[in-house]
Amino acid sequence: MTALRFISLKRCQRCDMSALFTPLRVGEFELANRIVIAPMCQYSAVDGCMTDWHVIHLGHLALSGAALLTIEATAVVPEGRITYADVGLWNDATEAAIGRTLESVRRWSAMPIAIQLAHAGRKASTEVPWRGGAQIPPGDANGWQIVAPSALPYMQGEHPPEALDRDGLTRVREAFVAAAQRAARLGLDAVQLHGAHGYLLHQFLSPLSNRRNDEYGGSLENRMRFPLEVFDAVRAIFPAERAVTMRVSGTDWVEGGWDIEQTIAFARALEAHGCAAIHVSSGGLDPAQRIPVGPSYQVPLARAVKAATRMPVIAVGLITEFEQAEAVVGTGDADLIALARTILFNPRWPWHAAAHFGDQVKAPDQYLWSQPRRYPDLFDIGH
Ligand SMILES: Cc1cc2nc3c(=O)[nH]c(=O)nc-3n(C[C@H](O)[C@H](O)[C@H](O)COP(=O)(O)O)c2cc1C
């Protein structure tokens, strides 16, 4: 098992540096600050292939000053897409399309880039969100037969998934491995496995969606088996010096479902298997969920995982303000914070945060003239 190496770098030359802008080393990986761009589906791919939209979207986020950019949920097989417009990484065409995007983005940004590898399981085959997001049954245009741990639909009345048999599990695991090999070839800096939001790996974890009576269902140990097998298989083939991480839902927010105690057990198992970091989100498995949405609403889940493990923990969810983010990292609730909607709304959020705290960010040469006079040291112009 890969030994965990998690070293908080010294507070550089300046002792007044904010926690948010203190660099962090995760294994071989050095992050310039504690701000991560969360994965965000764009539903703008064609046959799994990224389009010009992804160059624009990822390109502008790569100029934001965050420490790490995470590419959206990327399906490892076509039937693992949430929608027909999801990005994939299952053949040469989808790999080449990501390659073209990365070539453009990397020409202008040195920001490390991770990819989230995913399979949507029973939540696959839906319409894109801005057209309602409803399930598309097999046989209809843009629809297909979905698979899951058990033949239980996400919503009552939906076309049910087929339960994966032994061969099906092997095919899914091998698809994650093949996609991770392609990710390695693309030079991506890290792989995040999507074990959250009610998608396939989470469907195995939760007793609400996993009703199997073989060794992949029942006890917590059995429910964790398939996600851990996928993790191990990906970890084994992805270059050892690059991180493999997992995103989890800390709770289903449903009585009798996946909860924080089980998440901690899973996090400990992942850590023992060489997981480089864990990203703690929540929900998405069951329409009966009742989420107490509000600022930092998922931070207590991250804090609980942080208290029980040694690997870096990423908190996410309605973190919108600079001091709020600073408090999450500064009090030790989590090592990193991730931004999704906030950074879409304000793509230079990290620049503004650095200005607020008197810290520094990298800015592209073309934009150096934009440095406000009142922040004469904002841009780190060391090449
Ligand atoms: C447009 C959009 C797309 C998203 N796509 C993904 C995704 O591909 N994978 C994932 O794990 N979460 C996805 N999420 C969830 C976010 O990563 C994040 O966990 C959530 O939005 C809460 O963070 P926020 O309050 O900063 O937006 C998406 C969120 C948004 C807004």
Describe the structure in your own words:
With 383 residues, this protein is α/β, with parallel strands linked by helices. The chain has ten helices and 13 strands. Strands 4-5-6-9-10-11-12-13 form an eight-stranded parallel barrel, surrounded by five helices. Strand 11, helix 7 and strand 12 form a beta-alpha-beta unit. The longest helix is centred in the middle third of the chain and has 20 residues, at 166-185. The two termini are 36 Å apart. The chain binds flavin mononucleotide.
What features would you highlight for this structure?
383 residues, alpha/beta, eight-stranded parallel barrel, disordered N terminus, binds flavin mononucleotide
Net shape: globular
- The share of residues in helices is 25-40%
- What is the terminal-to-terminal distance? 36 Å
Q: What do the pLDDT scores average to?
A: 95
Helix and strand sequence:
EEEEHEHEEEHEHHEHEHEHEHH
Structural class: alpha/beta
- Strand tally, please? 13
Give the spatial strand order of the biggest sheet: 4-5-6-9-10-11-12-13
Strand fraction equals: 5-15%
| Biggest sheet statistics | 8 strands, parallel, barrel
Quick description:
With 383 residues, the chain is of the alpha/beta class. It has helices spanning 52-61, 92-108, 166-185, 200-205, 220-237, 260-272, 299-308, 322-330, 341-345, 349-357, and strands spanning 6-8, 24-26, 29-31, 35-37, 68-75, 113-118, 147-148, 162-163, 190-195, 243-249, 278-281, 313-316, 336-339.
